[in-house]
Design goal:
Blueprint lengths: L2 H27 L1 H28 L3 H50 L2 H13 L2 H35 L1 H9 L7 H40 L4 H11 L5 H15 L3 H29 L5 H15 L1 H5 L1 H18 L15
Length: 347
């Protein structure tokens, strides 16, 4: 090989590396938009999964099945809002006042302890009362507005993805060299199936945890149990971190009654979490997607540190996608090992 050709190859490799770096930086800059797009994919997978079941049961076309499922979900949400919406809204208004009382009680307890007084002084020194409170309120309001906008965007993206999934799948497959396009389509199909099974199992766990939390807190004498149960069920979507965050308002509300009620509430939460970890999750994962708990914990923390709250929300489904890709493209294709994909019967 001549020196000129060697130099040309070196320059070509340098340009490829630079191109990959630029592409990586670009993807990093639009990571928030990509995560929202992935949220839309989850919504689309859920809608298509339900529509597929309706198509199998009734023989209707996928288009009509998808339309009926969408109309049915909107009608169900509307009916739920009409029947229990005012009650839940009232409970959340009361929850705001009760949480304020709980925080004041915690602050009063800290003020009676030497170490608590030092902690309160440290917090007071790090935050001036006037401007910081206003800035904090503004941040909370802006965060709520951003979350609502993101939710709406995810829903609309999910509907568009669900209406024309083949269009977007074909676009992704065309980015792969032609000899590998058939395999890429298989990976996409397996990934969609795994996400559908994970979503199905996750919604089952969320519903059970929400109901158990509501019943348990009612028995423990904790006020506003339905609102707290709804929060616990929704936050169950985020493994490990979600239940911890959900426990904070529960304990603050229970403290407004008395310390004994707070202790009962803590026992209720511990029993529910043990039931979920040792009973619900093994049963659900046997029919859905089994992920190593340590991998889920590390992945959730890593995505939260990289992309904030949105990263924590989508960490587990992203791990599901990664797991399927590694099994099919590395373990099966590169190593030649047999793999078991979600939804397949064990040999």
């Amino acid at each position: 090989m001549s020196p000129d050709s060697g130099t040309a190859v070196f320059i070509q490799r340098v340009l490829i590396v630079l191109g990959l770096v630029v592409l990586g930086l670009f993807l990093w800059r639009i990571a928030y938009a990509l995560l929202l797009g992935f949220g839309g994919v989850l919504v689309a997978v859920f809608l298509r999964g339900l529509a597929s079941k309706l198509h199998q049961w009734t023989g209707l076309s996928m288009g009509w099945s998808l339309a009926l499922i969408s109309i049915g979900l909107v009608g169900l949400l509307g009916l739920t809002a009409m029947l229990i919406g005012p009650s839940i809204a009232s409970q959340f208004r009361d929850l705001n006042d009760t949480l304020t009382q709980g925080i004041e009680q915690v602050r009063g307890f800290l003020a009676q302890q030497p170490w608590g007084q030092r902690l309160l002084r440290s917090v007071t020194q790090n935050a001036s009362q006037g401007g910081d409170l206003l800035r904090s309120a503004a941040k909370v309001f802006a965060g709520a507005a951003d979350a609502l906008l993101a939710f709406v965007l995810v829903l609309f993206a999910g509907v568009y993805f669900a209406l024309r999934p083949d269009t977007y799948a074909d676009g992704l497959v065309r980015l792969v060299p032609k000899p590998r396009q058939a395999r890429a389509r298989e990976v996409l199909q397996a990934t969609g199936n795994a996400l559908w099974l994970w979503l199905l199992g996750q919604f089952v766990v969320m519903a059970i945890v929400g109901v158990l939390t509501t019943v348990g807190l009612l028995l423990a004498g904790v006020p506003l149990a339905p609102a707290l149960g709804l929060i616990a069920g929704l936050l169950e979507f985020v493994p490990f971190l979600g239940p911890i965050v959900a426990a904070v308002p529960v304990l603050l509300v229970a403290l407004t009654v008395d310390p004994q009620t707070a202790l009962y509430a803590m026992l209720v939460l511990l029993v529910i979490q043990q039931t979920e970890s040792n009973l619900l999750e093994p049963v659900v994962e046997r029919r859905a997607v089994a992920l190593p708990p340590v991998l889920v914990l590390v992945g959730t923390i890593a995505f939260m540190l990289l992309f904030g709250v949105l990263g924590a929300v989508f960490a587990t489904p992203l791990l599901v996608v990664t797991l399927v890709a590694v099994k099919m493209l590395y373990m099966e294709d590169a190593l030649g090992e047999p793999v078991h994909l979600p939804g397949e019967r064990s040999p």
